[in-house]
Amino acid sequence: MPKILDGIYSRMLPAPQVMADFALWARADNSAKDLTFWGKPTHFDYSFVASYFSDAGLVNPFHFRNANDQNTFIRARYFPDE
């Protein structure tokens, strides 16, 4: 569907700008606290986000020690006997 794809491409912003806006948004209500990163799975998602910040020349506002895995949370919360 080239028409739809062209519409998406026409609204794209430069990646560094998107990552800077994302960092500002993430810090908006949490400037005094450490941010928690949730991934599904964390080892996959966190590495992508960290690489995007690095490529943009920005500091990653999420620390790897504050990364939580949603798969583990779901398994522990909803399937505690497995």
What does this structure look like?
With 82 residues, this protein is of the alpha+beta class. 55% of the residues lie in helices and 16% in strands. The radius of gyration is 16 Å and the shape is extended. The N and C termini lie far apart (44 Å).
List its traits:
82 residues
Low-confidence region ranges: none
Number of helices: 4
Proportion in β-strands: 15-25%
Give, in order, the helices and strands: HHEHEH
Mean pLDDT reading: 87
Helix fraction by DSSP (H/I, runs of at least 4): 40-55%
The global form is: extended
Q: In this structure, how is the largest beta sheet organized?
A: 2 strands, parallel
Between the first and last Cα atoms, what is the distance in angstroms?
44 Å
In short:
With 82 residues, this protein is of the alpha+beta class.
Could you outline the blueprint of secondary structure elements for this entry?
Blueprint: H1 2-10, H2 15-27, E1 35-39, H3 42-55, E2 62-69, H4 70-78
Parallel strand pairs: 1-2
